[in-house]
Write a structure and sequence with these properties.
Blueprint (H helix, E strand, L loop, with lengths): L1 H26 L7 H23 L4 H23 L3
Helix pairs in contact: 1-2, 1-3, 2-3
């Protein structure tokens, strides 16, 4: 039974990590004086979310796997957007 509990916890951690990264991304003000610091924080959150997602994928159910892969795509979109707007 602990295995299933760990599986659920891993999924929830990944879900929370991704949500925090998305929220942070939404909150960033691109012309803010603090943008560089915010960007660093976002990068850190995104990396942490990726790690949590990868951990969760190891034990995920099929339904969870689909959700986790969607989070990965969404995070990738954030990374591309942030890297593309650094002109």
């Amino acid at each position: 039974m602990p295995y299933n509990k760990n599986k659920q916890q891993a999924f929830q951690a990944a879900q929370q990590g991704a949500t925090e990264a998305f929220d942070l991304y939404e909150a960033i003000v691109k012309d803010s004086a603090d943008y560089g610091h915010q960007l660093k924080h976002l990068t850190s959150e995104v990396n942490e979310a990726y790690q949590q997602i990868n951990n969760a994928l190891e034990t995920a159910t099929e339904t969870q796997r689909e959700r986790l892969e969607q989070y990965q795509r969404d995070l990738q979109q954030i990374v591309q957007d942030v890297n593309g707007s650094g002109e």
